[in-house]
Amino acid sequence: xxxxxxxxxxxxxxxxxxxxxxxxxxxxxxxxxxxxxxxxxxxxxxxxxxxxxxxxxxxxxxxxxxxxxxxxxxxxxxxxxxxxxxxxxxxxxxxxxxxxxxxxxxxxxxxxxxxxxxxxxxxxxxxxxxxxxxxxxxxxxxxxxxxxxxxxxxxxxxxxxxxxxxxxxxxxxxxxxxxxxxxxxxxxxxxxxxxxxxxxxxxxxxxxxxxxxxxxxxxxxxxxxxxxxxxxxxxxxxxxxxxxxxxxxxxxxxxxxxxxxxxxxxxxxxxxxxxxxxxxxxxxxxxxxxxxxxxxxxxxxxxxxxxxxxxxxxxxxxxxxxxxxxxxxxxxxxxxxxxxxxxxxxxxxxxxxxxxxxxxxxxxxxxxxxxxxxxxxxxxxxxxxxxxxxxxxxxxxxxxxxxxxxxxxxxxxxxxxxxxxxxxxxxxxxxxxxxxxxxxxxxxxxxxxxxxxxxxxxxxxxxxxxxxxxxxxxxxxxxxxxxxxxxxxxxxxxxxxxxxxxxxxxxxxxxxxxxxxxxxxxxxxxxxxxxxxxxxxxxxxxxxxxxxxxxxxxxxxxxxxxxxxxxxxxxxxxxxxxxxx
Length: 581
Prior knowledge:
The protein is α/β, with parallel strands linked by helices.
């Protein structure tokens, strides 16, 4: 209680009584105690803050108070600080800036954050982050509270990070320069590589032409002799001619394999997909190796399930794959062995498997990874015999992969081998496929009586061979040795058909064809022209047709294909003339 006692006096001033009043001050005492506790708590926070706290007079800028952390930061005692202006804590060149910022903090409510330097007793500049706010002290003065957070370590980290960034930027710049230099080198290398590839393509094209030209003579003469073009041959002579032809065909297959590998490497080999019956492909493939198997008394069998199986493939390339595998099986299977071709479809997996197995000499496990490398040859266990040229299986793998398939092999020495080609497959609808025999080819019209053929060929052996063959088949043949002669003779002789070599000295066959097609006279300009060329690289056929030729036959010439092509073109021309008449 708070008690007050007041005396009551009479007229002469004598105290006659006392007026006593009592007031309950419990609430007031409680407020005072709470205030003392609050001040004590705030003082404790002030004194024990991890950051330095300084209090300055807002109007004069003189420092009024500082916690222990502020004294440690500045290196000055509280008494020293109370004699200083707040701007004296900062570098000389920032006095005014510091004063302005503290005034702004006093005039505006809320905390202000800024980065500055504090100078300690020894003159060291310490980077700090300051948050400041204005307040009214108990005596009514406006004051500014400043909380100083030492950011020395943060500045060091920032500088380190900046140095690291600068270093990284320099490193990136150096690497970029190096990369650009490497790209320049790479571009130069690419140019050199493209040039080398062009040279390689030119080399392959020239080699193909140079090899096919003599092969045309060898195979053509062998076939012509067997057909009796130059008279009847004895049985022994026929056998020798057959061996000559087989050797020539083998060499031709090697040339074709080499060119196919080159086309695949150059990305120029494309597949012509068509739906074909597996029975037809397998039967045709096996017929090409049947004689070789018979010569070694080998059993050649096949199993195809289901029998009416149909696939979407490039039939010529699939046949090439199967013939390659079957030929290898025959070659490396001893006398009296067995070779089997089996085909099975897996609708669940969506694949069809073509498997060629044999009872041959087999392959060592360590040699299996080398099988599909181009020009990689394996040695048999006996006699060090080289197992092939290394092109065939490489081509098998690449053709399978072009179809979206794969190749696997299982083999052990003296236990035979098993090669499996797996190709994508999808059944055609729910009903089983029905076998449909291919329609019989239409019978070509008989050649015109003594049809006039102009043979343009600069190789005398090939010219003689083809001329003799055509004359023997009832054609009237005239020969030219270059393109210029061909153009002149087409104008003067107006032949029924021209067999045009492409690569000749002087004017080549393409230019000669273009000139013939350019004549105003229809009879000359529309003369049928068939390319007979040893050019077999990608695009050669297209270039011949684009020049205006009607057909393209690659050397060595297959006589049956040659006669059927001539008969078809002459028949079509006869029908056209009759229709126009």
